[in-house]
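[agent] plan:
  1. take the single chain provided in the ticket
  2. run structure prediction with default settings
  3. attach structure tokens to the ticket
  4. add a short note for the reviewer (M.T.)
[agent] executing step 1
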Amino acid sequence: MARAIVTSEILDELTALARRFVRDIQVEAVPSIQDWCKAVGMSEDNPFLCGKTVQNRETGRHLILLAQRITPEMQASVISAMEHHAKLSREEVASLKNADVFVKHLLLHELAHATDHERSEEECDRWAFQQLHAA
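[agent] step 2 finished; step 3 output follows
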């Protein structure tokens, strides 16, 4: 976790992964998810958010926003929260220290929200890990 993850550099790969599940999903890397939300009139309190799913109310299409630059501190914060709050295996949570695994899990977690709005954060994490293991 020594270097930042630059999602804009792997956006095509992440979009292709998302479209394996939802054909018309859009994935964008933005400098600040909080600023993006503010610009479109949405409330978002977390300035360090790594990912977010939003839905266009007119078209029903989903958009997954990823922080363009995920710092090691942002990654560590997500991992720490999962260690303390989620009922996931230690091995799965530890695997998120790998940048590639982390960003794919993040994308799949957000995709889980897009495909089922009723899923809890923990259920989205579990689904994301299931998809990672199946790949």
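[agent] step 4 note for reviewer: The chain has a mean pLDDT of 94.
[agent] ticket updated
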